[in-house]
Design goal:
It contains 6 helices and no strands. It has 104 residues and is mainly α. The protein has one domain. α1 packs antiparallel against α2 and α3 packs across α5. The longest helix is centred in the middle third of the chain and has 15 residues. The protein is globular and about 45 Å long. The model has no long low-confidence stretch (mean pLDDT 91).
């Protein structure tokens, strides 16, 4: 039996899947997870296309979105826009705020 390595980018085949994936990572992940998730999304869409839309070179884009990278916020925003996303702030209820403070 032959198996292949799992690559989440293979499953990010629609705007809805991309949005759901990124929203899940934003809610449950940390900074590094978000950077890596943007890398998966850029790979799914096409690194060349994202590089062109952000004005970055492909090698710079790969480096900025690799595990352990700490890209500048402007880079994150460029990539987010290029993949068709945006940031939105929703108010957090007192109950949610208290629950997150207790786990921190």
């Amino acid at each position: 039996m032959k198996t292949s390595k799992f690559d989440v980018a293979d499953y990010l085949d629609s705007n809805e899947m991309i949005a759901e994936y990124l929203n899940t990572v934003l809610e449950e992940g940390d900074n590094s997870d978000i950077v890596v998730a943007l890398g998966h999304i850029a790979k799914a869409i096409g690194m060349s296309k994202i590089a062109e839309e952000t004005g970055m070179s492909r090698p710079s884009l790969y480096k900025a979105l690799s595990d352990g990278a700490k890209p500048q916020f402007t880079t994150i925003m460029k990539v987010l826009r290029a993949v068709g996303g945006r940031l939105r702030i929703d108010p957090v209820s007192e109950k949610e705020k208290n629950a997150s403070q207790q786990t921190a």
